[in-house]
């Protein structure tokens, strides 16, 4: 079964100019999402190279959330879950 990083790479390679995410009036192509996701994943790795580290996201459902979620998976991190 393909991993999330593999799926992102495949989508960017196969459909770079297609719309990947729609956020109201804003859109982002697979190539744009891929580039921004890789940059954020590298930044996360620069902060902590340890596998399985936890990352928290606090934002509304928007384009940047998709990029952050994918970047966390690509960097080999976990999303910290809070229970209320």
Description:
The chain is an alpha+beta fold. The protein has helices at residues 4-14, 30-47, 63-74; strands at residues 19-23, 26-29, 54-55, 78-79. The mean pLDDT is 89.
- Taking Cα atoms only, what radius of gyration do you get, to the nearest Å? 13 Å
Provide the helix percentage: 40-55%
Question: In percent terms, what proportion of residues is strand?
Answer: 15-25%
The spatial strand order of the largest sheet comes to 1-2
Give the structural class: alpha+beta
N-to-C CA distance: 33 Å
Mean pLDDT: 89
Describe the biggest sheet? Answer: 2 strands, antiparallel
Tally of extended strands? 4
Task: Give the low-confidence spans.
Answer: none
Would you list the SSEs in sequence order as H and E? Answer: HEEHEHE
Principal-axes shape call: globular
Q: Count up the helices.
A: 3
Question: What's the helix and strand layout?
Answer:
Elements: H1 4-14, E1 19-23, E2 26-29, H2 30-47, E3 54-55, H3 63-74, E4 78-79
Parallel strand pairs: 3-4
Antiparallel strand pairs: 1-2
Helix pairs in contact: 1-2, 2-3
Q: Short summary of the structure?
A:
The chain is of the alpha+beta class and 84 residues long.
Features:
alpha+beta, globular, two-stranded parallel ribbon, 84 residues, 3 helices
């Amino acid at each position: 079964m393909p991993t999330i990083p593999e799926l992102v790479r495949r989508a960017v390679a196969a459909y770079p100019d297609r719309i990947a995410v729609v956020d109201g009036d804003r859109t982002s192509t697979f190539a744009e999402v891929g580039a921004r996701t890789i940059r954020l994943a590298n930044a996360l790795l620069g902060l902590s190279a340890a596998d399985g580290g936890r990352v928290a996201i606090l934002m509304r459902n928007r384009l940047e959330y998709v990029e952050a979620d994918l970047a966390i998976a690509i960097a080999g991190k976990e999303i910290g879950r809070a229970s209320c």
